[in-house]
């Protein structure tokens, strides 16, 4: 059984079909990239899966259990975690405290009434910080961290909740190319070992093709292609959406400083 099964999802805003009969699966341990031009419906898909939006039609099943109609918090309880475009850490707290807080809320989620003290989780929090390469900074305040490092702490916090599925809507927005690659390499290493499925969006085609196990492409709300990097790179409808017919992706795309779509058509 798929970890996540999205079936025939549709959602309109006014007259705009933001998501139009979209179906896809995510397997345990798989990194699935959801790509498409601005306005394609990617964030709307994310927000339906995490319960922020209710679709007009369709089904979203996690381990066979229907999520549509559930509140965001209950969907989180079932094991759908997310990282945020704007990092969700508390600036005045240390890295260690931030991760400990996440561990406390996980225990509350799993064991209900028992309210554990944050101090219980110091070792586990340190281990998580170590896994994201931030253990040396554990007792510093989040406010002093560089942006890329905050994203690592964010990942540790998301993992502290032991999600089955992790939703990452533009996790590398605002990051330099090297940082983007580092964050996705780290994400891949940490989730595949744990069997966590990841659904992520990303503007850099380099990053998508380097780290996604599979790619699905949305355009104007419709799913127009899915497959591995090579399939997507060579798909005529994808090329048409991004560049106009007859163009192909460059093997290594250059990265633009503003984080906009970085692939260019080959002459
Ligand atoms: P993407 O994340 O791929 O850029 P979105 O899912 O944000 O795309 O948007 C898909 C379409 O739905 C766009 O046309 C956008 O303008 C529209 N849309 C998204 N959210 C809303 C909203 N809350 N109200 C009205 N229209 C929206
Ligand atoms: Mg978006």
From TrEMBL:
Q: MF terms per GO, please? A: ATP binding; ATP hydrolysis activity; L-isoleucine transmembrane transporter activity; L-phenylalanine transmembrane transporter activity; L-valine transmembrane transporter activity
Q: Which GO terms describe its biological process?
A: D-alanine transmembrane transport; L-alanine transport; L-isoleucine import across plasma membrane; L-valine import across plasma membrane
One GO cellular component term of this record is:
plasma membrane
Q: Does the keyword Cell inner membrane apply?
A: yes
Classify the source by domain of life: Bacteria
SUPFAM superfamilies with a match to the protein in the record: P-loop containing nucleoside triphosphate hydrolases
ABC transporter domain location is 4-245
Q: InterPro entries in the record, alphabetically?
A: AAA+_ATPase, ABC_AA/LPS_Transport, ABC_transporter-like_ATP-bd, P-loop_NTPase
Gene3D superfamilies the UniProt entry points to: P-loop containing nucleotide triphosphate hydrolases
Give the keywords, sorted.
ATP-binding, Cell inner membrane, Cell membrane, Membrane, Nucleotide-binding, Transport
Query: Know the name of this protein?
Result: High-affinity branched-chain amino acid transport ATP-binding protein BraF
Please tell me the species this chain comes from: Paraburkholderia piptadeniae
């Amino acid at each position: 059984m798929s970890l996540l099964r999205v079936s025939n999802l549709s959602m309109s805003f006014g007259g705009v079909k933001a998501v139009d009969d979209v179906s896809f699966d995510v397997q345990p341990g798989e990194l699935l990239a959801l790509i498409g031009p601005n306005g394609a419906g990617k964030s709307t898909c994310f927000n339906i899966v995490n319960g922020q939006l209710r679709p007009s039609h369709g089904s979203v099943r996690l381990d066979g259990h229907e999520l549509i109609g559930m509140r965001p918090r209950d969907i989180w309880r079932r094991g759908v975690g997310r990282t945020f475009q704007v990092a969700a850490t508390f600036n005045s707290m240390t890295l260690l405290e931030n991760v400990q807080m996440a561990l406390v809320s996980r225990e509350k989620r799993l064991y209900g009434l028992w309210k554990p003290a944050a101090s219980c989780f110091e070792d586990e929090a340190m281990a998580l910080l170590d896994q994201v390469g931030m253990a040396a900074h554990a007792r510093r305040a989040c406010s002093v961290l560089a942006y890329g490092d905050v994203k690592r702490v964010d990942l540790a916090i998301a993992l502290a909740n032991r999600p089955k599925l992790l939703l990452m809507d533009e996790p590398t927005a605002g990051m330099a190319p090297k940082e983007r690659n580092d964050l996705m390499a780290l994400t891949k290493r940490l989730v595949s070992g744990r069997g966590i499925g990841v659904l992520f969006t990303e503007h850099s085609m380099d990053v998508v093709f380097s780290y996604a196990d599979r790619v699905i492409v949305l355009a104007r709300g419709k799913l127009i292609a899915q497959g591995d990097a090579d399939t997507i790179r060579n798909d005529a409808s994808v090329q048409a959406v991004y560049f106009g017919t007859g163009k192909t992706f460059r093997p290594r795309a250059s990265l633009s400083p503003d984080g906009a779509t970085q692939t260019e058509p080959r002459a």
